[in-house]
Design a protein that fits this description.
Blueprint: H1 2-5, H2 20-45, H3 49-52, H4 67-73
Helix pairs in contact: 2-4
Length: about 80
């Protein structure tokens, strides 16, 4: 989850909001993260991840993406 909220996913570290605005952003990111992860899990169960997410290394036979990455790439 740490990597997903940093530069690979939502780039939360670049957010300059403070106070209530920051809390609102964190709440929205939590909702979006939950939706992307659950969609990614559904796509993995249906074995559709190979059509959505490209492999990180082409010499490996298995694609190693998280459910979040697959769900985010599906949008």
């Amino acid at each position: 989850m740490f990597r997903d909220l940093k530069s690979v996913g939502y780039s939360l570290e670049r957010c300059r909001a403070q106070g209530k605005r920051f809390l609102a952003i964190v709440l929205l990111i939590a909702i979006a993260y939950t939706c992307a992860t659950s969609q990614g899990q559904v796509l993995k169960q249906k074995a559709l991840q190979k059509y959505i997410a490209r492999p990180e290394h082409y010499d490996q036979p298995h694609r190693r993406h998280s459910a979040f990455h697959i769900g985010l790439a599906a949008h």
